[in-house]
Automatic annotation (TrEMBL):
Species in which this protein is naturally found: Xiashengella succiniciproducens
A UniProt-annotated Pfam family: DUF2179
Domain DUF2179 as annotated: residue spans: 120-169
Protein name: UPF0316 protein M9189_07475
Keyword Transmembrane found: yes
Source organism, top-level taxon: Bacteria
Topological type in the membrane: Multi-pass membrane protein
Protein's cellular compartments: Cell membrane
HAMAP family in UniProt: UPF0316
Domain DUF5698: 30-86
Transmembrane portions of the chain: 6-23, 43-63, 69-89
InterPro entries associated with the record: DUF2179, DUF5698, UPF0316
Length: 193
């Protein structure tokens, strides 16, 4: 009995290969969908190529071995894990822009002042809420800068209501430079391209 007919190969290595292939192709698929929604026109097709290529390899192993139920489990587990890994990676990459819309009647000037002092562009306007007059503050920022802005909101006005929405593209605007992330205290302004 050769290595390819061994129990080790059939019940451990092939299912592990199928699992890892599925994790890889579903992760790529998740990232591809995110890149399409963010407008990365060149990167999405490249990821799509590798996604389908890996999927074909995994499916070939399944089709060649239809009698092994454990391969189906590995395939399904790889799909589920790939979705999770893809979402975690997408969250870590923090690509694109978001709009934070803050609705509050308290500490408006302080909040606007703190956001602008950190280099964020802010637009504030008065509005009528369900119970009283409020202010709406809009702040379009890089998704990677969201934790900084969220901390400012929580520290300045912890009861503020705010929403975060994806922005496909931003033309012009005020964004903190990358030096802000290093905490050196310099906040050079630059416009989005």
């Amino acid at each position: 009995m050769g290595f390819y007919e061994s129990v080790w190969f059939t019940w451990v290595l092939v299912p592990l290969f199928i699992f890892l292939a599925r994790v890889s192709d579903v992760t790529l698929g998740t990232l591809r969908i995110v890149f399409v929604s963010k407008g990365f026109k060149m990167l999405a097709p490249i990821l799509g190529f590798f996604e389908v290529f890996i999927w074909l390899i995994a499916m070939t192993k399944i089709i060649q071995n239809l009698d092994y139920w454990f391969y189906y489990v590995a395939y399904s587990a790889g799909f589920a894990t790939g979705n999770y890994v893809g979402l975690i990676l997408e969250e870590r990459l923090a690509l694109g822009f978001v709009n934070i819309r803050i609705i509050t009647s308290d500490f408006v000037d302080t909040l606007v002042s703190k956001l602008t002092s950190e280099g964020f562009g802010v637009t504030s306007m008065p509005a009528m809420g369900a119970r009283s007059n409020v202010n709406i503050i809009n702040c379009v920022l890089r998704r990677s800068d969201y934790p900084i802005a969220a901390n400012i909101i929580k520290e300045t006005n912890p009861k503020a209501f705010y929403t975060i929405e994806d922005v496909r593209a931003a033309n012009q605007g005020v964004f903190p430079s990358r030096t802000l992330m290093r905490g050196n205290g310099n906040f050079p302004w630059r416009k989005a391209k």
